[in-house]
Specification:
InterPro entries: LigD_pol_dom, MtLigD_Pol-like, NHEJ_LigD. By secondary structure, this protein is of the alpha+beta class. The strands form four sheets. Strands 10, 11, 12, 13, 14, 16 and 17 form a seven-stranded mixed beta sheet that branches. Strands 5, 6, 7, 8, 9 and 15 form a six-stranded antiparallel beta sheet that branches. It has a two-stranded antiparallel ribbon with strand order 1-2. A hairpin with a 5-residue loop joins strand 11 and strand 12. The longest helix is centred in the first third of the chain and has 19 residues.
């Protein structure tokens, strides 16, 4: 029988807890659920009010991996949902608003991906994101070099940037913004990527063209588009090990000399939270949000 767990008054059937999802480390589904329960206090504020896309990997990263954007069949009626616009017509998506919803979603075994806007104001961006993606043999070390340049460039416009690992090979830069549409933020982010390429032509790249990418860092500005999503802070990733998209300090970025320095797995997160708290908490304070410069 599937065990029933009560979370804040909600009954949840949490299944296959002994199933190994990450064979390289033996990390089980039960440990995945435990991770999300312990990270809930910092993860939930970054999920709240944001429609969630799930990248599901129920049999582990070596099994079938697929995106779920619409409300999955069997979703409990107490899970909050919202209608969101899409080019092909409105759709209904999940909002992970509380611990029971988080544990229900974690039981699906999924990465969490969110938009740069909240459900109450679709297309009105409150975050800017730059996804720094290294082309081999470049690594996160080169991403850090580009990130430091971008931090200073954003600061020149009065916008404070924060960093997190992608949970894979690269680095994400995030900033709180206000008073701009997703289209406006996308255009601004594209301009930053172009400037980075001009300033560091042997290192940074603003185009996705595969033939140009070896040894360079692709500054992906396109995830600011209203339809796009980015891995949510603290989400586990469908990778060989239970890597987490983990916030990092700027000192860690400055001191990065090896890819392993910025590779964090689920067991690493609790000690980091003890040491640093939520390094991305300022993103949640709209009073600290920056305003895009007028073109």
């Amino acid at each position: 029988m599937t065990p029933i767990t009560v979370v804040e008054g909600r009954r949840l059937a949490l299944s296959n807890l002994e199933k190994v999802l990450y064979p390289a480390t033996g990390f089980t589904k039960g440990e995945v659920l435990h991770y999300y329960a312990t990270a809930a206090d910092v993860l939930l504020p970054h999920l709240r009010d944001r429609p969630v896309s799930f990248l599901r990997y129920p049999d582990g990263p070596d099994g079938q991996v697929f995106f779920t954007k619409n409300v999955p069949p069997g979703t409990p009626d107490w899970v909050t949902t919202a209608e969101v616009p899409r080019s092909e017509g409105p759709a209904r998506m999940v909002l992970v608003q509380d611990l029971p919803s988080l544990m229900w979603a974690a039981n699906l075994v999924a990465e969490f991906h969110t938009h740069q806007w909240v459900a109450q104001a679709p297309g009105a961006a409150d975050r800017l994101v730059l996804d720094l993606d290294p082309g081999s043999p470049a690594t996160v070390v080169e991403c850090c070099e580009v990130a430091l340049w971008l931090r200073e460039r954003l600061a020149a416009d009065g916008i404070e940037a924060y960093a997190k690992t992608s949970g894979s090979k690269g680095l994400h830069l995030l900033a709180a913004v206000r008073g701009a549409s997703s289209d406006q933020v996308s255009e601004y982010a594209k301009g930053l990527a172009l400037e980075a390429e001009k300033a560091m032509p042997r290192l940074a790249l603003h185009r996705m063209t595969r033939s140009l990418r070896p040894g360079k860092v692709f500054v992906d500005w396109s995830q600011n588009a209203a339809r796009k999503t980015t891995a949510t802070p603290y989400t586990l990733r469908a990778r060989p090990e239970p890597w987490v998209s983990a916030p990092v300090t700027w000192a860690e970025v400055e001191e990065c000399r090896s890819p392993t320095q910025l590779a964090f797995t689920a067991p690493d997160v609790a000690p980091r939270l003890q040491d640093h708290g939520d390094l991305l908490a300022p993103l949640l304070d709209q009073d600290r949000a920056g305003t895009l410069p007028r073109s």
